[in-house]
């Protein structure tokens, strides 16, 4: 590995005896900016964008960028740009000193004119590699802070910290030595699995926008309908965030609750979110976009409704019947259900082709994912409209088929189930979460459960007939012949719904609090539970926690592919990275499985299944076995092996 071929070119340009002026139009990201920094002058069009996004692909600017940029704009600004990959406008680039001039006219013409004006002037002071790197007095503190910052946000990704080391070399070493260090560090990143995972993920996220559905609708043939006014029904955990996302995207919103008290609490929460959004992220304040109402009649003239009432099929059916009667003809009726049958809801309406799932993720104003769930009767243009709405709200929309839990929550079920079983066998929520967070998840599964609300899953289990508080002995932990853990149900029976009640798997300082603290009450409760069920706690190592939780989730992912619910492994990976905080530098669960080795995943699942024969989720599914047996092919070859049900028609 000798580094990118751009290196000799940038050195030749910089060494030229004639002035070289970079004319920057459009985007100068990565290699483009490397090239521009090797020039003696830089002129940018006012609409140009500049930056070093390499860190997001698991790399660093490897053609001298880490050595030149701090020499040009100073260490703190260079660290910021290189470690975040942030893009800057031409105006900011001018302010930082990256470009010499900004023009609203043709940048090439301006650069030629500029070159003529500097002809004959010495270039000695224009070769950035010859500049001494500025050394502010608090240099050590700057690097210490930068390292702390990247450690806090990187969640195990190595590129940001390596970028800091490369910039450090610019300050501590002469240019030539610094370039050697940059090359070494680049090579380290290039050969790490993380760069491959991040590059795979980069293309996966683009691939999901070219969606297609099992009944033949496609991104390039289905035209979205115009939507100006939307409504949200139910302003709880999810409805509030959905309202904020819609208003911030410029839609007029009618927000509906059942009673004045809930409405006024929701209004206060929504206003807070809008104000923090404006303050922290510069999003325009959008209070005036929202009208609040306690009457569902207020949605009569909207183009699209998103229902976000309790996860209760009977209630949702009533709401859909009402909406079908009240809404104007052609209005889209969407549900934010976590996993109920979209088609059953569609059947309550006069126009089932207008019904589609718009499944947001908690916290809904922050998480970047939207699962668009198409039922067998959802029309192509309705799917296209929901997909486009997600995009307008700044989210990545992924089209998925209709089944229990769709893609994300269907995989979450066996993952959460393993986490419950681990508690029964001796683990604590903080231990399980620590292992998952060390792996790189933004939050462990128990913290996520507290954030979402334990009552959401409880309502579903109750309606499925799984919750039977009276049963004791082994039957309390068996349902339909399979192992079942009632732990979540027992917590809900005690009013522990998570963050919203201030108690769940963890304790919080108040209802609505966000800082999770271990709860001694829960430890005592788990001990009592184990004693009552004759379970003996054992020490469970990190590897077992990780393998059981992740491989059960991954196995379900393969089953989903086999069933044709997700179009491809990329869709699943994007859903997990953007919807559930899966570490991007591990590519997503399906990519990760390929990196571990599909045969190894099968072998470990079989191992755990032998120990827990009453857990069907540990039985490797046939697609996973088939792929493992065909020699662990690269992920882009999986489609050749996947036999989708539609291809058998
Ligand atoms: O930690 C980041 C994250 O991504 N966590 C993972 C969240 C996740 O996995 N969500 C998916 C839940 S599952 C789901 O939604 C599907 C479903 O159908 C569930 C059905 C029930 C199933 C239950 C079983 C599990 C997160 C983005 C949360 C925070 O990241 P940062 O710490 O970098 O963010 P900040 O501090 O910059 O804050 C950004 C905004 O997020 C708010 N926030 C942070 N922590 C929170 C939270 N909101 C609620 N609870 C928390 N614990 C924070 O307040 C800020 O918003 P604003 O409005 O204050 O600006
Ligand atoms: P929640 O209990 O926090 O809020 C539900 C709200 O709906 C309550 O404020 C309630 O007063 C209101 N409501 C009930 N009936 C109503 C009616 N007829 N008209 C208007 N409002 C009504 O629930 P939530 O967690 O926000 O979940 C809402 C929906 O979103 C559920 O279907 C859930 O499965 C789904 N979902 C939840 C999450 C999550 O993480 N909590 C994530 C994605 C999807």
Automatic annotation (TrEMBL):
<protein>
    <recommendedName>
        <fullName>Peroxisomal bifunctional enzyme</fullName>
        <ecNumber>1.1.1.35</ecNumber>
        <ecNumber>4.2.1.17</ecNumber>
        <ecNumber>5.3.3.8</ecNumber>
    </recommendedName>
</protein>
<feature type="domain" description="3-hydroxyacyl-CoA dehydrogenase C-terminal">
    <location>
        <begin position="545"/>
        <end position="632"/>
    </location>
</feature>
<dbReference type="InterPro" id="IPR001753">
    <property type="entry name" value="Enoyl-CoA_hydra/iso"/>
</dbReference>
<dbReference type="InterPro" id="IPR029045">
    <property type="entry name" value="ClpP/crotonase-like_dom_sf"/>
</dbReference>
<keyword id="KW-0560">Oxidoreductase</keyword>
<dbReference type="GO" id="GO:0003857">
    <property type="term" value="F:(3S)-3-hydroxyacyl-CoA dehydrogenase (NAD+) activity"/>
</dbReference>
<keyword id="KW-0456">Lyase</keyword>
<keyword id="KW-0413">Isomerase</keyword>
<comment type="similarity">
    <text>Belongs to the enoyl-CoA hydratase/isomerase family.</text>
</comment>
<dbReference type="InterPro" id="IPR008927">
    <property type="entry name" value="6-PGluconate_DH-like_C_sf"/>
</dbReference>
<dbReference type="InterPro" id="IPR018376">
    <property type="entry name" value="Enoyl-CoA_hyd/isom_CS"/>
</dbReference>
<keyword id="KW-0276">Fatty acid metabolism</keyword>
<dbReference type="Pfam" id="PF00725">
    <property type="entry name" value="3HCDH"/>
</dbReference>
<dbReference type="InterPro" id="IPR036291">
    <property type="entry name" value="NAD(P)-bd_dom_sf"/>
</dbReference>
<comment type="similarity">
    <text>In the N-terminal section; belongs to the enoyl-CoA hydratase/isomerase family.</text>
</comment>
<keyword id="KW-0520">NAD</keyword>
<keyword id="KW-0511">Multifunctional enzyme</keyword>
<dbReference type="GO" id="GO:0005777">
    <property type="term" value="C:peroxisome"/>
</dbReference>
<dbReference type="Pfam" id="PF02737">
    <property type="entry name" value="3HCDH_N"/>
</dbReference>
<dbReference type="Pfam" id="PF00378">
    <property type="entry name" value="ECH_1"/>
</dbReference>
<feature type="domain" description="3-hydroxyacyl-CoA dehydrogenase NAD binding">
    <location>
        <begin position="229"/>
        <end position="402"/>
    </location>
</feature>
<comment type="pathway">
    <text>Lipid metabolism; fatty acid beta-oxidation.</text>
</comment>
<keyword id="KW-0443">Lipid metabolism</keyword>
<feature type="domain" description="3-hydroxyacyl-CoA dehydrogenase C-terminal">
    <location>
        <begin position="405"/>
        <end position="508"/>
    </location>
</feature>
<dbReference type="GO" id="GO:0004165">
    <property type="term" value="F:delta(3)-delta(2)-enoyl-CoA isomerase activity"/>
</dbReference>
<dbReference type="GO" id="GO:0070403">
    <property type="term" value="F:NAD+ binding"/>
</dbReference>
<comment type="subunit">
    <text>Monomer.</text>
</comment>
<dbReference type="InterPro" id="IPR006108">
    <property type="entry name" value="3HC_DH_C"/>
</dbReference>
<dbReference type="GO" id="GO:0006635">
    <property type="term" value="P:fatty acid beta-oxidation"/>
</dbReference>
<dbReference type="GO" id="GO:0004300">
    <property type="term" value="F:enoyl-CoA hydratase activity"/>
</dbReference>
<dbReference type="InterPro" id="IPR006180">
    <property type="entry name" value="3-OHacyl-CoA_DH_CS"/>
</dbReference>
<dbReference type="InterPro" id="IPR006176">
    <property type="entry name" value="3-OHacyl-CoA_DH_NAD-bd"/>
</dbReference>
<keyword id="KW-0576">Peroxisome</keyword>
């Amino acid at each position: 590995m000798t580094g990118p071929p751009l290196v000799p070119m940038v050195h030749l340009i910089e060494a030229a005896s004639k002035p070289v002026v970079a004319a920057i139009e459009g985007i100068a990201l990565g290699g483009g900016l490397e090239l521009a920094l090797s020039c003696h002058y830089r002129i940018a069009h006012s609409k140009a964008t500049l930056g070093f996004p390499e860190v997001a692909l698991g790399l660093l600017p490897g053609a001298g960028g880490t050595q030149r940029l701090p020499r040009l704009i100073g260490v703190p600004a260079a660290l910021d740009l290189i470690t975040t990959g942030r893009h800057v406008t031409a105006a900011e680039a001018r302010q930082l000193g990256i470009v010499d001039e900004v023009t609203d006219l043709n940048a090439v013409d301006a650069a030629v004119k500029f070159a003529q004006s500097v002809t004959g002037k010495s270039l000695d002071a224009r070769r950035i590699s010859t500049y001494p790197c500025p050394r502010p007095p608090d240099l050590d503190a700057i690097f210490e802070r930068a390292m702390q910052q990247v450690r806090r946000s990187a969640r195990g990704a190595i590129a940001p910290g390596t970028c800091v080391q490369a910039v450090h070399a610019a300050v501590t070493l002469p240019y030539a030595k610094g370039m050697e260090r940059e090359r070494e560090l680049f090579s380290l990143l290039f050969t790490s699995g993380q760069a491959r995972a991040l590059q795979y993920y980069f293309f996966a996220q683009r691939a999901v926008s070219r969606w297609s559905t099992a009944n033949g609708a496609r991104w390039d043939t289905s035209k979205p309908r115009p939507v100006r006014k939307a409504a949200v029904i139910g302003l709880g955990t999810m409805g509030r965030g959905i309202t904020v996302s819609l208003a911030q995207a410029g839609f007029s919103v009618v927000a509906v609750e059942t009673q004045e008290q809930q409405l006024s609490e929701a209004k206060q929460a929504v206003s807070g979110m809008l104000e923090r959004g404006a303050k922290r992220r510069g999003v325009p304040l959008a209070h005036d976009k929202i009208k609040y109402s306690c009457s569902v009649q207020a949605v009569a003239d909207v183009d699209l409704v998103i229902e976000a009432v309790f996860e209760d099929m009977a209630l949702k059916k009533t709401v859909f019947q009402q909406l079908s009667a009240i809404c104007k003809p052609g209005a889209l009726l969407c549900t934010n259900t976590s996993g109920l049958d979209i088609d059953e809801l569609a059947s309550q309406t006069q126009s089932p082709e207008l019904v589609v799932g718009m499944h947001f993720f908690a916290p809904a104003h922050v998480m970047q994912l939207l699962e668009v769930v198409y039922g067998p009767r959802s029309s192509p243009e309705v799917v296209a409209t929901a997909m486009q709405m997600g995009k307008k709200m700044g989210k990545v929309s992924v089209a998925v088929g209709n089944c229990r839990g769709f893609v994300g929550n269907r995989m979450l079920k066996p993952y959460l189930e393993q986490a419950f079983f681990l508690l029964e066998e001796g683990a604590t929520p903080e231990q399980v979460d620590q292992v998952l967070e060390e792996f790189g998840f933004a939050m462990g599964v128990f913290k996520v459960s507290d954030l979402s609300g334990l009552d959401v899953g409880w309502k579903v289990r109750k309606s499925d007939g799984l919750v039977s508080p009276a049963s004791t002995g082994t039957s309390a932990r068996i349902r339909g012949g399979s192992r079942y853990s009632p732990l979540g149900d027992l917590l809900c029976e005690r009013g522990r719904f998570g963050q919203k009640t201030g108690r769940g798997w963890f304790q919080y300082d108040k209802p609505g609090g966000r800082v999770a603290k271990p709860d001694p009450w829960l430890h005592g409760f788990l001990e009592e539970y184990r004693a009552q069920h004759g379970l003996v706690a054992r020490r469970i190592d990190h590897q077992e926690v990780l393998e059981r939780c992740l491989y059960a989730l991954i196995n379900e992912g393969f089953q989903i592919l086999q069933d044709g619910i997700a179009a491809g492994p990329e869709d699943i990976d994007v859903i997990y990275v953007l919807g559930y905080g899966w570490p991007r530098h591990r590519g997503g669960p399906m990519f990760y499985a390929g990196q571990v080795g599909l045969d190894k995943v099968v072998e470990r699942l079989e191992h755990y299944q032998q120990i827990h024969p009453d857990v069907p989720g540990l039985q490797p599914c046939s697609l996973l076995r088939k792929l493992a047996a065909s020699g662990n092919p690269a992920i882009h070859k999986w489609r050749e092996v996947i036999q989708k049900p539609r291809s058998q028609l």
